[in-house]
Amino acid sequence: MSGAPSQQRRANMSLNPIHAARVRIAETWTPAQLDQLDALVAVCALVARADGWVTPDERERMLERMRSLAALAVFGIDDALEAFEALERRFEQDPEGAQFEAEIAIRRLRGRDDAARAVVNAACVVAASDGGFDAEERDVLLRICSLLSLSPVQFDLVAERGRR
Questions:
Q1: Quick one: pLDDT at residue 6?
Q2: Element (H, E) at 144
Q3: Which InterPro entries match (predicted)?
Q4: How crowded is residue 154: how many other Cβ atoms within 10 Å of its Cβ?
Q5: Where along the chain do its domains lie?
Q6: What is the DSSP letter of 159?
Q7: pTM for this entry
Q8: Residue 81: CA atoms inside 13 Å, Cβ hemisphere, count?
Q9: Terminal Cα-to-Cα distance of the chain (whole angstroms)
Q10: What 3-state DSSP class applies to 62?
């Protein structure tokens, strides 16, 4: 039975960096709210990396954008920023693995339309904060919509069919 405490410690330590802040906040938030936090952090990271890398200036601007997101303020910006930083480190070490983890976090909101729309809206705000979407950011936003089974039309990412 001496292995039980170490197993419990391992269960509390996630290998997934998106969950880095969960140890402190898991008792405060519901699993559904934590899923939304993970998805918000994931879309911010994906938008930041839309062109393939994040320069120090881009990183600082992204953190400022995240601080202004109302959706993240609900969770506590420090926890959100800590999770974002952890995911960014993961992208630096293993880009494919981090991409996979981010997409899983986003996909968890599929079918929860209000939460999913809030995440896409936050991603759009972050992407547009420098004056508009570039092609790479738009592609990331379209991918996020696809992961959530949401129409990009409702976010003005593509024109509605029949509308010119």
A1: 35
A2: helix 135-147
A3: DjlA_N (IPR007791), TerB-like (IPR029024)
A4: 13
A5: 26-155
A6: P
A7: 0.78
A8: 15
A9: 69
A10: helix
